[in-house]
Write a structure and sequence with these properties.
The complex is a heterotetramer, with 2 copies of chain A and 2 copies of chain C. By secondary structure, chain A is α+β, with helices and mostly antiparallel strands. Helix content of chain A is 35%, strand content 36%. In chain A, a hairpin with a 2-residue loop joins strand 7 and strand 8 (129-132). Chain C is of the alpha+beta class. Chain C has a single domain, classed as Roll (Ubiquitin-like (UB roll)). Chain C has 3 helices and 5 strands, in the order βαβααβββ. Chain C has helices at residues 10-16, 30-38, 42-47, and strands at 2-8, 20-25, 55-58, 61-63, 74-78. Chain C has a 5-stranded mixed β-sheet. Classes of the chains: A alpha+beta, C alpha+beta. Chains in contact: A-B, A-D, B-C. The interface between A and B is medium-sized, with 33 and 33 residues. Strand 2 of chain A pairs antiparallel with strand 2 of chain B, so a sheet runs across the interface.
Amino acid sequence: MRVAVQAEPFDYGAESAAFAAAAEGAGAVVTFLGVVRDNGGALRAMEIEHYPGMTEKAIAGIVEEAAGRWPLTDALVIHRHGRLAPGEAIMMVATASRHRAAAFAAADFLMDYLKSRAPFWKKEIGSDGAEWVAAKDEDEAALGRW
Amino acid sequence: MRVAVQAEPFDYGAESAAFAAAAEGAGAVVTFLGVVRDNGGALRAMEIEHYPGMTEKAIAGIVEEAAGRWPLTDALVIHRHGRLAPGEAIMMVATASRHRAAAFAAADFLMDYLKSRAPFWKKEIGSDGAEWVAAKDEDEAALGRW
Amino acid sequence: MTEIDVLYFAWVRERIGLPRERVTTGAATVAGLVAELAAREERYAAAFADISALRVALDQDLADFDAALDGVREVAFFPPMTGG
Amino acid sequence: MTEIDVLYFAWVRERIGLPRERVTTGAATVAGLVAELAAREERYAAAFADISALRVALDQDLADFDAALDGVREVAFFPPMTGG
């Protein structure tokens, strides 16, 4: 299980390949990659603020919760902070399990919880100003699925 | 949208990276990788038989069905046939969409349908003989989720 | 009477002992064709003993056993699929 | 009276105008601390005007506004999170 919170870009292909290669005994690997959308050209940059110290702790807690609910052989979370350009990767999640249902459910769960329970805040820098992204009711509601 | 049915190995990391790089406008990419489990050392090889001609057609139909249900910006299915060793990648699926829920649901859907509706048959070659893998009731039941 | 290509996969292929053959049949439906094949020899009877354990495709599309063979050129018999 | 580090993030930080400060307080609960802060200046009052739009963490764990401050060394206020 690995959690990385970093300003630097990460190599999604290389991380995915290394995760799969290390997933001994797993029959199923699921990955999720989040990318900054350009909103039809209106977005110049995305600023991601976080709470150093709490971020790593919160994500580790979410991963632990997932590992308690599904028989995972491994899990990975990488989340960036700082200034990102449209098209750049924000974060990725990977899960490995013997069976596909557990790998899918755990990755989906991790995303729902990272979205609403890890201390990150997104600000969109557009051509006509900057705005904090508002949390969506549907994101909070999604937690009720688990 | 790309479908590949092949005996040759594929490069999961490179395929994932290329898929993500081409996913213009998508905010979310989900991949699934299926790997041959070694069943605690009891498995020597996995033979995958398929129905040339129908296989490509059936997978293309499943991908089309997924694209009709969720707003996908792209999708990829690679499935191998022939003789595979434990630890080798059998197949992968990738989906891209603006939002994570659609990317997750479509990848999960593709896996359920590829499992039970694409003409592949697995045979496990063990130290004490060979046996065709039986379809599981739960795999057929999984289709009812959609 | 028409000529149809009949294909077998996985354990159906192994039980019958060949991957495909050309069959001359007067059967109107898949079930009729199955009855003709099963009557041929013990290995066919064994392969078709339990229809519920089999699937059928007509010209590479999944079909039912009561489907008509009208205009069909290729029939395939196989066990439930186990891809993914 | 005890000393507590108070941290602000995202628009709470922007509205108050600083990322963290050391606060001397006699408040027993988070809600008590919020009342003290809101009474200070207009920018604090603005930041804490709608508590339902805020979240709080005590020593880096999410908590409720009626939680006690007993032994807490770090309190953070921020809007609902938008990670992922």
